[in-house]
Amino acid sequence: MYTTSYTRKKGKYYHVVFEYVKKKGTRKKSLSRTTKSEDKEVADSMLDDFVTECMRILNIDKKYKPKNRNEIIFNKDINLYNKEISFCDFIYGYIKMRRKTIEDDTYSGYESIARCSLIPYFYRENKKLKEIEDFDIEKYYYHELNYRNISPNTVLHYHYLLSLVFKYALRHKIISINPLDSVEKPKKKKYVAEVYNAEEINILLDLLKREEESIYFGVLMAAYFGLRRSEVIGLKWSSINFEENTITIMSTVKETNIDGKHILVCQDKTKSPAGLRSFSLPIEIKELLLKIKEKQEENKKYLGKCYYMEDKEYIYVDDGGKRLRPNYLTTRFGKFLKKFNLKHIRFHDLRHSCATILYDNNAGIKEIQTYLGHSSVKTTMEIYVHLINRNDKSVVDVLGKKLKI
């Protein structure tokens, strides 16, 4: 049995959520209810009663009552070098200690892993850091993979965070043995993206232009230039050189949760140095950008002081001047595909579609790497190995036609 509970904002109001897995290997199920409140504190106060009600309805033993994720707050004053420290406290303290030395989205990822997985599991174990053995970690991985049905790729992220935690503890002599050294990490499951071909992209863009203009620009940028969602939202007018007809990818906007707060992380840099790249600006996209700029100027005049000027440097804003959120783009995209019964792909798969179209039209792997802004050719080959294998098959077919066996 596995249970957990938390509150989350969905639309205008907060909801209380209870998740459970009754039997190993079965899918995670959840019950939720709107609080009809926009106040998180009100929602948090309603969570315990909702959990009690869910456990009664589902006839779940009280010993499985979950640790409320919302109670996990990374603000404790913890002495990391206390050899009697609990494992959960050490995880708390380690993540808090790294706060100023890592990127906001990395910190958010660590916090999420601890809040949603590590702490709820090991809180029940109630062990000290020095008492954790390899078998404890193996049981944890088994629990996540088989009871919670977490993907191996996600558990790999857990493994990476644990490796940082234990290496730090070993380096500072808080433990004498790293239990992770004898634990086999989960095998990565290769993800092959669903993609659109050029014809499907053209149909999609034509339909968006007529039916969902608000996300047309974002989809076009992702499909044509292979931009990540954060790069699309992060485009600034300073990225465009209308005289030289170039567009430079040099800033990003990401959406993340830090210390229980939902924030936007805006950076004048890309995911990696290789992500800083420039493209020639096709005349059609240049004309589209000029129309967007003209419309923004009209909206400024019409709304006057009501126009939101703090995001004026960004290209992708709404009619009131506010920069669009990354989640808005992906959510609207998914709903659009469903509404018009189009093949389902993720927004990020537009980037993969771009790479596939390039490869099918004789672009080399090195060229694709540069175009997409990957840090190395190895990264490109790992992601698009299926394209290379497909090409190998065509070569083998040529030999099959020429050689008699």
UniProtKB/TrEMBL annotation:
All residue ranges annotated as the Tyr recombinase domain in the record: 191-397
Record flagged with keyword DNA-binding: yes
GO biological process, one term: DNA integration
Name listed for the protein in its UniProt record: Site-specific integrase
Protein keywords: DNA integration, DNA recombination, DNA-binding
Keyword DNA-binding on entry: yes
InterPro entries, sorted: DNA_brk_join_enz, Integrase-like_cat_sf, Integrase_catalytic, Integrase_recombinase_N, Integrase_SAM-like_N, Tyrosine_recombinase_XerCD
PANTHER family associated with the record: INTA PROTEIN, PHAGE INTEGRASE-RELATED
Stored Pfam families: Phage_int_SAM_3 (PF14659), Phage_integrase (PF00589)
GO MF annotation: an example: DNA binding
